[in-house]
Specification:
The chain has about 750 residues and is mainly beta. It contains seven helices and 44 strands. A hairpin with a 5-residue loop joins strand 28 and strand 29.
């Protein structure tokens, strides 16, 4: 090989090696991103009520949307949403679980007749969200009127600060360089109360003044110097900015027409020449991966708008050691429509005429539509509670019209990787999609038990029994089988008299400490309230009954068809249970173990004892001691079923199954006191099994007054392939100025809302 070819070969080898190294590094970076996304997985819930004011005893109806928390795509893992109605003391007046499909569903919550007039809080969350702060649950204040209970005293309207929050763009405040920061400055109701605030240094000098938008959010630029502290002074209290560092990375994004320019700065304590890596992704799907060099502590990068998919994406900076450095949020418009378009056949109509509504949005968008008579006719935006939930930090939903400051707050919500890496255990793993029951198993000394088996049984003839694992702290998580009716679950162990089984509450007992909006009943006009009240009472009188899906507790066993069944009533009475087993049950045999009788199961194929550990059940409850079975009164037993083979169920291996049913089917034949933990499991309701057609009927009986104040209610619509949804409905006899509210959640996670008016006369 001559020298020229040798040099070319070396160059090619170096290029291939370099490319292979870049591919390996990129793959490792994606693995790190996947780790962050999986461990930092979050969810958000949004509810769409059917109207703006309720009376005690009403049924509140709402659409449910569940999204993953970063990009708000409708791809959440959970399938159960918990909904609660709380008063200002955080006392729950109504609690219910709802099952949703494909991140979408609907619910009905019965408001108790005992509620006093005032403002209440509707909150919603998933089991996975209980791993994190209740600040990120969905919260929506509701006004409820009870004419039979006097109005409470009106709370003071004094302006107090509930939230002053700072968010550096990119997540870090860096010394010696210009940083863009967003500030949120609101009162106790999380509403704007001033147009401007001032940033001052600790020595009292004013650094800059910040203009605040309609949500009380503003943006400012500051160049923090070492040894200097900055903040906002309010009522003799200084609210401090985050600490500035000299070894962090700062990032600033700017819209440059058809591109997004990204400026990256490093503190002076970091190396002057440094390799960093930029990754643009959407919900874990990589879009751009680039190596950048920080020359003289800064660099620039540009991303074309056409490279941004619709919805939210995230720019993440990593070091070559896979250290998270900074992140920012970008919003891509793509080809989606600029806004939600709604057209109505006529804006002024008469009662009982046919009305058509066309909704135009992105194909596949999930839509909730409601047309209702508001509490007063000025505008629903004048409700004292309307601005509350939209600007509460835990419920900021994607909006292409957001200001730069709001996007900075949104970016912080997406990129808290430093916090994610400190998460060690997850109590409610997202891969469990169904309902969850959690608790702890302690021994007789109230210490964590880890040397015993825990069985969870479904009491009754339709039995089910599962062995549940628990960790070193004794904690366990159990996901019940789907059911349409309440059932009693029994928690028992191998030595139940030595176990203390603690079951944690299903609903969260952590609260966000939110201040309620003041209740001002004088804002509601008496004539409008009376109109709504009369319509509500008449609706309850004439409303047709609900058509629930028939529910039946069948007799299907978890182990399928038994190999042998003996019905006690078919035979002559025998004095003791031992004789029934010896005389009538083919696949059961008694052996001796340490001088005591032990019941075993014979295999149906070889007539040999299957093993030492058969599963013996009485109305679904495992019984470890054969003597307990022999002490049963035969007159209380209905039947005996045997599964004559080794049966593997979950992580439990059963050497045959003996399933004994009592006449009552409730395990009353056993002495269960102090030996088990019992739990009444209320399954999540699937609202699709309930008829809510009363709000969508296009016909009315002429002999009855049609007093509907909600004349259209469709919580779960999906736009067709052209992005269209068509609705037909009939106005009622109640005249007034109705409000049309349409909410849409697109496939790329954009939330859109339309509000219009309809006059019925």
């Amino acid at each position: 090989m001559n020298r020229k070819n040798y040099i070319i070969t070396l160059l090619l080898f170096g290029i291939v090696t370099l490319l292979e190294g870049q591919v390996m590094f990129r793959n490792e970076m994606l693995n790190q991103l996947d780790f962050y996304n999986r461990n930092g997985y979050s969810e958000k819930v949004l509810l769409y009520p059917d109207k703006d004011l309720y009376f005690a005893g009403d049924e509140m109806k709402f659409g449910i949307r569940l999204t993953e928390g970063k990009c708000h795509l409708p791809e959440a893992l959970s399938s159960i949403v918990y909904v609660e109605l709380l008063d200002f003391r955080n006392q729950p007046f109504a609690q219910k679980k709802f099952r949703i499909n494909n991140s979408s569903g609907s619910g009905i919550l019965k408001l108790p007749l005992t509620l006093a007039s005032g403002n209440y809080m509707l909150r919603a969350y998933t089991s996975w969200m209980k791993n994190f702060s209740p600040l990120h649950y969905f919260h929506l204040p509701l006004t409820i009127i009870n004419p039979e209970k006097p109005y409470p005293s009106i709370a003071s309207s004094e302006t107090r600060i509930a939230h002053i929050d700072f968010s550096p763009e990119g997540g870090n405040l860096v010394q010696g360089v210009e940083n863009h920061l967003a500030v949120r400055y609101t009162n106790q109701y999380h509403q704007k109360f001033t147009d401007e605030c001032s940033i001052i240094s600790l020595n009292g000098d004013t650094v800059c003044n910040v203009s605040l938008d309609k949500n009380g959010i503003g943006i400012f630029i500051i160049k923090p110097m070492p040894g200097t502290t900055y903040g906002i002074l309010h009522q003799d209290s200084l609210y401090l900015l985050p600490a500035a560092h000299g070894n962090k990375i700062s990032m600033h994004t700017e819209d440059a027409g058809h591109a997004r320019n990204i400026s990256i700065f490093s503190g002076y304590d970091r190396p002057k020449m440094e390799e960093i890596y930029l990754l643009l992704h959407q919900n874990g799907d990589p879009l751009i991966f680039e190596k950048l060099d920080l020359n003289d502590h800064r660099t620039e990068y540009s991303i074309e708008d056409k490279e941004l998919p619709p919805g939210f994406s995230e720019v993440v900076l990593f070091s070559k050691e896979f250290e998270y450095l900074s992140s920012a949020c970008l919003f891509g418009g793509g080809n989606q429509p600029d806004e939600l378009h709604v057209s109505i056949s006529d804006s002024i109509v008469t009662a009982r005429s046919t009305l058509s509504l066309q909704i135009k949005t992105e194909p596949g968008a999930r839509i909730s539509a409601s047309v209702f008579l508001p509490a007063f006719t000025d505008s629903i935006s004048n409700q004292p509670t309307s601005a509350f939930y939209k600007h509460w930090q835990g419920n900021i939903y994607p909006d292409p019209e957001k200001t730069k400051a709001e996007m900075i707050f949104r970016g912080r919500d997406m990129g808290s990787y430093q916090t994610i890496t400190r998460i060690k255990t997850i109590e409610f793993p997202p891969e469990i999609r169904n309902d969850l029951i959690s608790g702890a198993v302690l021994n007789g000394n109230k210490n964590p038990e880890n040397n015993s088996n825990l069985y969870i049984s479904r009491l009754g003839r339709n039995c089910d029994v599962q062995s549940v694992d628990f960790d070193k702290k004794g904690s366990f998580i159990y996901s019940p089988l789907e059911s349409d009716f309440p059932e009693q679950l029994i928690f028992s162990g191998e030595n139940p008299e030595q176990l203390n089984i603690l079951i944690r509450p299903e609903f969260s007992e952590d609260f966000a400490g939110i201040n309620f909006p003041s209740f001002h009943p004088e804002k509601y006009k008496n004539k409008d309230i009376n109109k709504l009240l009369v319509a509500s009472q008449l609706r309850n009188i004439y409303r047709p009954g609900k058509n629930h899906v028939e529910q039946s507790n069948g007799s299907v066993k978890f182990y399928g068809r038994p190999d042998e069944s003996v019905h006690i009533s078919d035979y002559i009475k025998l004095p003791v249970m031992e004789e029934f087993f010896r005389e009538l049950v083919t696949y059961c045999i008694f052996t001796r173990e340490e001088g005591r009788l032990k019941l075993n199961v014979l295999g149906k194929h070889n007539n040999r004892i299957i093993g030492p550990d058969p599963m013996i059940l009485v109305d679904g409850i495992p019984v470890q001691d054969t003597k307990t079975i022999l002490d049963l009164d035969p007159e209380t037993i209905k039947s005996i079923h045997v599964k004559a083979c080794r049966y593997i169920y979950g992580n439990t291996i059963m050497d045959g199954i003996v399933d004994i049913e009592s006449n009552d089917g409730n395990a009353s034949v056993l002495d269960l006191e102090d030996r088990i933990a019992s739990f009444i499991y209320e399954p999540a309701e699937n609202i699709s099994s309930i008829d809510i057609g009363e709000y969508n009927s296009t016909t009315s009986h002429a002999s009855l007054a049609d007093q509907r104040t909600v004349i259209c209610w469709q919580p779960n619509l999906v736009a067709d392939s052209h992005g269209n949804v068509y609705l037909n409905f009939t106005p009622s006899d109640v005249e007034g100025e109705y409000v049309i509210v349409i909410n849409a959640l697109t496939k790329n996670g954009t939330a859109e809302k339309y509000t219009g008016k309809l006059i019925v006369k």
